[in-house]
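Technical appendix A lists one of the benchmark inputs used to test multi-chain prediction within the project. The record comprises two sequence entries:
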Amino acid sequence: MVSIIDTNTISLLNLALNATTMRHQAIAHNIANNGTPGYRPIGVSFEAQLAQARDAMASNPNKPLASLGDFQPVFEFLPPNALGDSAVSLDMEIAKLSENTLHHEALLKALNKHLSIIGSAINEGKR
Amino acid sequence: MDYNTSFQISASGMAVEKLRLDVAAANIANMHSSAASPANVYRPLRVVSEEVRLEFARQFNALSATAGGAKVTSVEALATAPRMSYEPGHPHADAKGYVAYPGVNHAAEMVDVSHALRSYEANVAAMNAAKKMASRALEIGGQ
């Protein structure tokens, strides 16, 4: 039987929330260093690792994601853009910031919904 | 999750930009500060800032207290030549009637002011986003 308290969903959401928080720190760091000469912008690598986790799950759906600890978001240097320029562009950073904030809120909403489903099961569907 | 770090990063960026603005204002304020000798005349200042490295390899469950951001390394005086103005009656005039004024580039200072202002606003936007994310996280489990 599948447990109602689905640990996969909660641990995945937890991981994704960690990633958005770290990405926020990276963007804030880039913005704070907007005027620093020779600064290399940083980002967070997470989605590529998540794709691996997804593949692992697809091949073995019943396997609990106990090995999720291996998929941790990490800070990395962003590659220079097409012009070979690696300076911070404030407009791109602000765009990334809005996207990241929205993504973070979407993840929190998903977590809330998941918890409310559990809550509704506990209350036998009442309320 | 550590929202403190995000706030500290944005705050450090704001502090740097505020100093940039202060220094540009000081340069503009001293545009007409003459001196008796060209060697003693006010020299325009520039803020030199650098990055405070975020710890790259750190894992989320081993967060350390050091936040990233930016910091001011030094405030350097620019080696610009003083602007010599012919004002024979001036108390600071030299033997030939020239008064030494600071070589402040007004246009460059105004560009610096705008740049510092926009950068400061960007830092405020990042901080507001962090605030929003943190307050949304408080709603977990609510109805």
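The first strand of chain B starts at residue 45 and ends at 52. Helices of chain B lie at 3-29, 106-137. Comparable benchmark entries are summarised in Table A2.
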